[in-house]
Amino acid sequence: MNQVLHHLSGCHIQLVRESSGLNPAAEDAEDSGNLIVQLGANRHSVAQRIEANLNKRGSAAAQALLDDVQTATESERNLYAMLTPAELLSCGSSNSAAGPADVVSDFGLPVSLMRCLLEVPPLQAGLAEMLAELLVAIDKSDYPVCLQVNYTKLILSQFRYLPLAREAASRIEAILFDIIEASSLDAKRDTIALLPELFTQATDSLCEKLRSLLVSATELDDTSGSHGNASSTPLKPALFDCLTLLPLSESQLGEFRRLAMQLLASVRSCLSIP
């Protein structure tokens, strides 16, 4: 685990260790293994203690940690280490005190250092924006990568079933739709598929953004003059799957049904179907 933590500056390594209930100065293999367990099974309480420690250090502490993470992610090696579940980084270490079964979150998902930090409310929006910028940069080849890694899926996996802080929820919603607007088709689909796993409540703003996406996808078909071709409607299946899984209210569901009928009528008109 030390190979993950050394990407942060000394003061922030100490903060994470203190928040995990471990000796801040210890660096032996057994202690590292214990930290892996803490970041996994008890990550909620670890996140709460990190938040408490940040609050004790003053208002600038959270931004300092964000700046530290930003600097660390400028290296692909560091980025990969911070995004990868701790159990995978510890594989091959005979001295590790944690096995794969120890490092799982709720829903059986392995936990990375980045995911643990994402659960700290003061860090959530800043980290989400940072990860979105990295995803788009990698997607557009503006961030050079050497490892054969699907960074889009790896970055988006950090958000799965993430308990959203009230003050960060609307910002993260906007950030994800920025990804959808700016990224490639595959990244758009993956981001849309994430939405039902992140938002436990379909807000009016979320529904409005999805409505706009659905209308845009249909208008693209209308201007291309190509209907009935699966390749001409690449986002529609992902959008309909998303709407099926989102916890829509009766009124929201009714609105989307009416929209679907309107879009169907538009398609039929363009195809001159009576």
Describe this structure in words.
This protein is mostly helical. The protein folds into two domains: 2-200, no CATH class; 201-274, no CATH class. It has helices at 2-5, 10-19, 29-40, 43-56, 60-72, 76-83, 86-89, 113-118, 121-139, 151-157, 166-182, 185-198, 204-224, 236-245, 250-270. Helix 2 packs across helix 4 (43-56) and helix 5 runs parallel beside helix 9. The longest helix has 21 residues, at 204-224. Mean pLDDT is 77; it is low at 22-38, 89-108 and 222-232.
Residue share in helix: 55-70%
Number of strands: 0
Order of helices and strands: HHHHHHHHHHHHHHH
What low-confidence regions span 5 or more consecutive residues with pLDDT below 50? 22-38, 89-108, 222-232
**Helix count?**
15
Structural class: mainly alpha
> What is the molecular shape?
globular
Share in β-strands: under 5%
Distance between the termini: 65 Å
Give the biggest beta sheet: none
Radius of gyration: 21 Å
List keywords for this structure.
single chain; 274 residues; mainly alpha; 2 domains; 0% strand; isopeptide bond
Outline the secondary-structure elements.
Elements: H1 2-5, H2 10-19, H3 29-40, H4 43-56, H5 60-72, H6 76-83, H7 86-89, H8 113-118, H9 121-139, H10 151-157, H11 166-182, H12 185-198, H13 204-224, H14 236-245, H15 250-270
Short description:
By secondary structure, this protein is mostly helical.
